[in-house]
Write a structure and sequence with these properties.
alpha/beta, Transcription Regulator spoIIAA, six-stranded mixed β-sheet, globular
Amino acid sequence: MSTGSIYYAVQSGCYVLKCVGDVRLTLCSSLDCHLEAVLDGQVLQDIVIDLTEAVGVDSTTLGLIAKLAVRAAKMGLPKPALVSTNEDITRVLYSMGFDCVFMLMDELPVSACDLKALPWVAESDARMRDRIISAHEVLMDLNEANREAFQDLITALEH
C-alpha cells in the first residue's frame, strides 16, 4: 500500500479535505490539529471530504472525519459531502453509520480549490493515544455495532 497524505483547501466558505493513498493513525495528530483550527477559525458553509484517491483509511482517521461531521452539525452546517469511489471503503462507511452524518456520494463535485498539504504535527505518544481514543469514541457514538467493535480497543488504549 502507498503512504498516505492529506490535503485541504478553503475557498469562499467551502472546505475540502482530500485523503490520498493509505491514510493511517500516523497522521491523526496532524489531522486533528488541523480540523480543530479550521473549525475554530473559519466561517464555513460547506464541507467536502474526498476519498476518491484513498486506498485505505483506518478507524482513527474515520473517527476524526466523523468528528468533523458531528461538529459541523453542531455549528448548524448542512451534512458534509463524503465522496468515495472505492467499494471497500464505501462499504465500511455504510457499516459504521457514516450515512447518518454525511451525504455519501460516489463521484466528486467539480471544485476550483487549490489544495495544500496538511502540515505535519509531531506529538508525544500519550497525546497521540488520546487523539486515537477520542476518534474511536466518536465512531462508537455513531451506532451500537461500532461501540461493540471498538470497546476493547478503547479499554486497551486507556490502560
